[in-house]
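Field log, afternoon session.

UNIT: design team B
ACTIVITY: writing a sequence onto a fixed backbone
BACKBONE:
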């Protein structure tokens, strides 16, 4: 197959062979399209979200209601990106019990009389829904249906242990205070480029 040299080759950032539907905690980062500051401003080291930022906050907090078996942990809405820790647990799995209707499924049953369990969500499913729902709400609010909100991909880190979780939480908590030096801050990036520095 011939590649178009003018198009960048996108690399899958997910860990090859890893099951992103298994129990565990995952630290995710999503960045806005073009790194545009859409969600508010950092003032005196604290984020002050605007209505779009409030919608991002709300969709994140609603994830457990949309996906039973999913919990949300610490998170930060930044002017042009989002950090959050999502936890997948089997203790509160979203599989539908035998004979009970699933969400939005009414009382339809299979030939055997039982409703099949819903598939367990994976991290990519959850991120895709989060991006879709935030884009839908913010585009409607701005009167710009079809507008891009997020970059295509996202960053994830599989949290391995309690120390790793503590580091991720500290990074999230300190992110607003470090905005001036954040690589996602366009003003900071432009200053580095002006000085001939690279990221």
């Amino acid at each position: 197959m011939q590649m178009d040299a003018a198009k960048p080759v996108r690399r899958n950032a997910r860990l090859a062979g890893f099951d992103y539907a298994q129990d565990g905690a995952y630290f995710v980062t999503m960045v806005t399209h073009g790194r545009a500051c859409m969600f508010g401003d950092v003032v005196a080291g604290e984020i002050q979200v605007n209505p779009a930022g409030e919608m991002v906050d709300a969709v994140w907090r609603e994830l457990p209601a949309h996906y039973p078996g999913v919990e949300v942990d610490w998170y930060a809405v930044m002017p042009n990106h989002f950090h959050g820790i999502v936890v997948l647990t089997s203790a509160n799995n979203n599989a539908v019990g035998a004979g009970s209707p699933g969400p939005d499924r009414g009382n339809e049953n299979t030939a055997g009389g039982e409703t099949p369990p819903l598939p367990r969500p994976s991290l990519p499913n959850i991120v895709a829904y989060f991006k879709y729902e935030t884009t839908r709400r913010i585009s409607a609010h701005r009167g710009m249906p079809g507008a891009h909100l997020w970059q295509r991909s996202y960053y994830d880190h599989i949290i391995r242990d309690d120390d790793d979780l503590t580091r991720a939480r500290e990074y999230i908590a300190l992110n607003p205070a470090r905005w001036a030096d954040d690589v996602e801050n366009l003003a900071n990036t432009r200053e580095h480029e002006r000085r001939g520095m690279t990221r």
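LOG NOTE: The domain at 24-101+111-194 is CATH 3.30.70.1290 (Alpha-Beta Plaits).
NEXT ACTIVITY: expression trials, pending approval
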